[in-house]
């Protein structure tokens, strides 16, 4: 639709308004509402009968879903989960656990000291940040490749039997 038409005897501030006149703003608002409705309608899938989604399986406090007892929720991993010469990033728990040599487990902060990106993996004997390419030693967190210049801070972990937890 076009702008409201004014007659030749109207001044610039006398453009017609009212319930019968459609403005550009009203047209855009209506088009936005239609677009939103289309997007929301597309979110429903086939077979969506309006029923609430299933809550999933019941969660219990009876130990480890992997089959062992990890002393409740305090254990992060089993010693067998951490490869010799490698490690694993536990971002949600705020720790990287490495095993530089058999039976020697280390913990480090998972945030790169360069610009605060989370480290992404442990590979090739280093803890790696893919944001800018920094690499840190799995033995002591020291910088192996920049741009980071500061080592990863150590985190206290404890090994109890085959369980690894934050200390």
UniProtKB/TrEMBL annotation:
Keyword Nucleus: no
Source species, domain of life: Bacteria
CDD domains: Rieske
Cofactor(s) essential for the protein: [2Fe-2S] cluster
Keyword annotations of the record: 2Fe-2S, Disulfide bond, Iron, Iron-sulfur, Metal-binding
Matches recorded under InterPro entries: Rieske_2Fe-2S (IPR017941), Rieske_2Fe-2S_sf (IPR036922), Rieske_Fe-S_prot (IPR014349), Rieske_Fe-S_prot_C (IPR005805), TAT_signal (IPR006311)
Region spans: Disordered: 1-22, 48-74
Occurrences of domain Rieske (ranges): 74-166
A UniProt-annotated Pfam family: Rieske
Record function comment: Iron-sulfur subunit of the cytochrome bc1 complex, an essential component of the respiratory electron transport chain required for ATP synthesis. The bc1 complex catalyzes the oxidation of menaquinol and the reduction of cytochrome c in the respiratory chain. The bc1 complex operates through a Q-cycle mechanism that couples electron transfer to generation of the proton gradient that drives ATP synthesis.
Name used for this protein in its record: Cytochrome bc1 complex Rieske iron-sulfur subunit
Organism: Micromonospora andamanensis
Taxonomic path: Bacteria, Bacillati, Actinomycetota, Actinomycetes, Micromonosporales
